[in-house]
Amino acid sequence: MKKHREWLRKELPLLEEEGVLSMYYAQALREHYALEEQEDDTGPFPVTILLGILGAFLVGGGLILLLGHNWHELTRSLRTVLIFCFLLLSQGFVGWVLLRRRRSVAARETSAVLNVLFVAAAIALIGQTYHIPGNLTSFLLVWMLLSLPVCYLLGSVVAALLYLAGSTAWGISLASDGGSAAWFWLLYAAILPFAVVRLRDVARRGAGACLAWGLCLHATVAGCFLASDIPGVWILVYTSLFACMYLTGVAVLQPKPPWVARPFLWVGSVGGLVLAYLLTYEWPWSGSRYGARWSGWTMSSWVDVLLWAGLTATVVCLIVRVVRETGWRDAIQGVAPVLALLLWAAAQFGAAPGLAMLGFNVYLVVLGVLWMALGIREASLARLNIGMIVLMVLLLLRFFDSEIPMVVRGVVYMLLGGIVWGVNLFMLKRRRKAGLA
Amino acid sequence: MRGILFVFLGVAVLQLAVPASMILRREQVLREGGMVQFRTAPVDPYDAFRGRYVALRYADNTVPLQDGAGQSLKRGMRIYVVLEENEEGFVQPVSYSLSRPEEGRYLRVPVQWVNKGSRMVQLDYPFDRYYMNEYEAPRAEQAVRRLDRGNPEPTYVTVRLLDGRAVLEALYLDGKPVHAYLEEEQGQP
User: Fold this and answer.
1) CA-CA distance, A90 to A111, in Å (whole number)?
2) Do B49 and A126 touch (CB under 8 A)?
3) How much is the CA Rg of chain B, to the nearest whole Å?
4) pTM higher than 0.80, yes or no?
5) Which residues of B touch A119 (CB under 8 A)?
6) A285 partner at 20 to 30 Å CA-CA among A10, A176, A253, B85?
7) How far apart are alpha carbons A310 and A314 in whole angstroms?
8) CB-CB neighbors (< 8 A) of A120 in chain B
9) What confidence tens digit (pLDDT) does each residue in B119-175 have?
């Protein structure tokens, strides 16, 4: 029986990928044959999980608000007793879940959220009692560091999302106070091992997809934490970051989940394109030369360099993997970091911003044409239209920021519109002939 | 399973130890620290987690920039500020050093900024909030504004100092603790 179960466990993803079984029935088979050890209460409608989490948020948030009232009748000793009572209560709940309800996602998520919020309540009460100074910065850091182990202990995705949100808020708060938020990346890295394990579920579980979206969006926001001691370093870091996300979306998450569960691909490709469009303007490059704000190497600038190096090394590894597994077409956007590095280096050696602007214009044209060519070759309307959109947006931007007469712009636009229609019609006819549409 | 329980116990102990350490460090200052008075200028803001508080700014929050202080001061750098009591009983910063003074009243405080023109160092005192009950804090603010208009008795806080660490103890309005002042005010017709 064990042998058969093992065979079925391996077979189900293949059947799902080939479309023989829907995700729903594959999951039902997994549950029927108890192929997965955990999750008593997962299914297509995880109401118990959602209600449990909502309840924990309401109880925890209510406690924070009640304490925020500041009951000055409470003495310092009574407040201390309360602080430890709240902590022990939530820890008791966590302990009970670990011992008795470990297989219940609802219980794990609920106890994790409650513990994270009770820790916040305890720290807030200490701050209130002793009039601890400052803004949210120090409060958030202590809270997040104490909450991090809970994510791992209970495997809680919601606690991990709270941790990510708190860490990002901490970084923003620190950066707005003029401090270096380079340490944010350490906090971010601390959740990655947990995320990697959970992301294996991304195809089937909403929770894994939520975590993936959280990781992508927080990493994108985190660009404002770069120290920028090195002029233009954000160009290098962001091009590598988006390429890394895009390639992860292409390479790691196989078999392909539905689009909503592919944040790496979406954030990576859309972010990478938006960034490439920005880099066709002069302002990112005119401020990126050495000497403008360069005041020597600091710890923060080293963190930026390490971050860039780590991301770029990951991009290289992912390109190799993608080219081996799915061919060069999925690795096209991975070229952006290399191009950015070459143009950034040229700018440091005195090249005019025009060179870098031209470089990214050419990159976008090549990208658009390649997508279109792939679309025509593989008879894929989606690829063809993506290529056209890439080109059209570029042309739109160029016509808005150039001094070409309006009549010329109008005629060129109409011509381009005609070409797009023509190519689409040609493709449709070809697909009909081939019996695809 | 046993491994997970050990990890759980570790996390639980950590979650209890950090708040305990935060409490103990401040209780020690309140119990053993010497008391000083800082003259203030309060207003009433709000913190989403900790409730309403009276934000405190201090009249005497600068110290003259010293020549040859060892290294240039930067924002956020922590220095030891030596405090001396004036004839009104309030403490004022008179000098600073980068190392811990051997005697006297001193406070470890971050530099807010350095004004090289006027050669003054602005200090960021680590007691800029006095948390109050959500109903009393707005009344305290109104009282302070009223008292600020020509009242000879200043608004001030008492702070306990120990080894350069400080814990805010009480806020005084018109020479009385803020709660007593508000109760007295409520009792008046």
Assistant:
1) 7
2) no
3) 20
4) no
5) 15
6) A176
7) 6
8) 49
9) 888 898 888 888 888 888 888 877 777 776 666 667 888 999 998 898 988 888 888
